[in-house]
Amino acid sequence: MIAPGVMLYQTSQASSSSKQPRWGLLIDTNMLNESDIDACVSACQREHGWSSAPGSKTDAQWIRKVKLTDPESGHARFLPMMCQHCEDPPCVDVCPTGASFKRQDGIVLVNKHTCIGCRYCMMACPYKARSFIHETLQDQLAVAPRGKGTVESCTLCVHRIDRDGANAEPACAEAINQGDRKAIWFGDLHDPQSEISQRLQALGAIKLRADMGLNPGVRYQGL
User: Fold this and answer.
1) Model pTM?
2) Side-chain-side CA neighbours of residue 105 (13 Å)
3) pLDDT digits (tens, 9 = 90+) for 14-47
C-alpha cells in the first residue's frame, strides 16, 4: 500500500481476476430503525473525521439516511445510502483524470492527488453518494485524507480491509452489529463460502437501481 486506499498490484495478480475477492455489504433493513442509521452515520464520521457543521457550506455525507414511506399504510423504513461500489462505476467512466478508480477488489475510491474537483462523478452517480469539499479542512485523520476542492465518498473503510482482510468490519457495521444482533454483513461476494454469500444465496437481496446494470457491491434485504 502506498497510501490509504491506494494499492500497487503485480501484473501477474492483475491477470488472475477470478481469484480476487470482491468486497461488499449486505444490509438487512428489517433489522434497522432510524436510530440505527444515525449510529451508522456517526460511526462513519468518527472513523473518517468528516461532519457537517451548522452553517457550513460543506455538506459531506459519506452515508445518507434515507426514509422510505409506504403511502398507503404510512409505514416508514430507513436505510443507509453510501457509495454502492459498483462493478461498472459510472463515476470512474466520466472522470477526466483517472482520480476516480476501482480497485481489483471492487472498492471504488478517489485519489485526492489527481482529483480536480470537476464533479462530473457526482453528476454521474445515480445514488448521490459523493460529496464535494468547499472549505479548508483541519484535523484530518491519517486513514482518510481529504482536501478542499475535491470529491469524496464512502471508502468501505478500506484501511480496515487492507489491515484485516475478510475479518474486517466497516465502522457502520461495527456500530450496528452488537452481541447476537446483526444487520450489516461485510465480506467477499466472490467466495461462495463467505457468510455474506451464504446469506445472499439463502435469502436473496436486491440491488438498488438494478435496471442500470451497474452491479453494485452493496445489497439490501427487506425492501
Assistant:
1) 0.88
2) 20
3) 344 457 999 999 999 999 999 999 999 999 999 9
